[in-house]
Amino acid sequence: MDTEKVSHISTSGKELMEEDEDRRNSRKSEVNMEGSQIPEITVEKIERIFNFRINEAAMKELRYPWWDTLIVKLLGRRISLLALIRRLEAMWGKMDSIKVIDLGNDFFIVKFYSQEDLDFALTEGPWKILNHYLSIRFWQPDFNPLEATIDKIAAWIRLPGLAIEYYEENMLKKIGDVIGCTLKVDTNTADKSREKFARLCVELDLTAPLISQYAIHGVKYKVEYEGIHNIYFSCGLVGHEKSNCPKTILEISEGIEVRVTEKEKEGVEKIEKTTTVDRVRESNPDISKKEKGKQVIEERNEAYEPWMLVQRSTHGRKGTKGDNTTGGSGGIEKGANGKG
């Protein structure tokens, strides 16, 4: 089984718990303030469009069942509703059952019938399923799965090669805060019982390039990421490929599609072209003369390389169908360089 503790979308477990308490208090006050207002939904036609108007009492009535629910999405991998239900029940359904509803666009809403189970889901993460992080957020009014994005995620990182004297909590948190926002230190690391690498849980900003290296007194150290997939190594961002990298700009020049980096727009002579360029060059040998002085390259930033990604080891594991879920914060993983 391959379900692993790991993640939420924007805040730590403690902050989610505080948010949960605030939401419950707010909901209680709303119920007390309703008074004698009668729920009412009216319909009017405005410029050939039927518009629904919902008064405050009716809106509270509609939203009440969803305040203690979570919206989840598996980062970088699709999963069926039935498969997700099985894994979430194994992870979170300790005291009572849970209900999972497919919202579309790979977002799901999870309804808990036990406050203890909800608290467990909020505090015992981060979570992973099939070696992919599970993002978690509270349900929000008017949530639109077609427009929602995942901007932050809690993830485990490894600091290989770090000298043992730096396995001190304050030092590790300072390193983690450079990479993201430190949420917690792995128990084995805190106890100094695992010396191959230090392990931290940090909140990552997925809208910014990942931090791949840091230095102590000028000596460089690498950062490895567990459960992170689909990194475009030219820009260090998560969740896209070269064809739709936000750091490049698609331009048309003499009928040729050219993907230009932001640096090129500033005058740096590095141009990355799509396969359209190759097709045009093959059909027109003279094209090379027109492009004289331009360098067509596969842009790659040396700061971002495959060694950043921790890969799961399949050594000694049987490929049994259904063996896709494990508990805990570990799992057998190794760095892309084979160590770990």
* Count of alpha/pi helices: 9
Cα shape: elongated
Low-confidence stretches: 4-11, 249-254, 267-277, 287-300, 314-340
CATH architecture of the largest domain: 2-Layer Sandwich
Strand content: 25-35%
The sequence of SSEs as H and E is: EHEEHEHEEHEEEHEHEEEEEEEEHEHHEE
Main beta-sheet annotation: 6 strands, antiparallel
Q: What is the CATH fold-level name of the largest domain?
A: Alpha-Beta Plaits
Mean pLDDT comes to: 74
The strand count comes to 21
Work out the helicity level: 10-25%
- Mind telling me the CATH class of the largest domain? Alpha Beta
Q: Record the strand order, biggest sheet.
A: 1-7-8-4-6-5
Our Rg estimate from Cα atoms comes to 25 Å
How many discrete structural domains? 3
CATH homologous superfamily caption of the largest domain: RRM (RNA recognition motif) domain
User: Helix/strand-derived class?
Assistant: alpha+beta
End-to-end span in angstroms?
21 Å
Domain DUF4283: 66-146
Biased composition (Basic and acidic residues): 22-31, 283-303
Region (Disordered): 1-35, 283-340
Biased composition (Gly residues): 325-340
Walk me through this protein's architecture:
By secondary structure, the chain is of the alpha+beta class. The protein folds into 3 domains: 121 residues, Alpha-Beta Plaits; 114 residues, Alpha-Beta Plaits; 51 residues, no CATH class. It contains 9 helices and 21 strands. The strands form 6 sheets. Strands 1-7-8-4-6-5 form a 6-stranded antiparallel β-sheet. β12 and β13 form a beta hairpin. It is elongated and about 70 Å long. The C terminus is likely disordered.
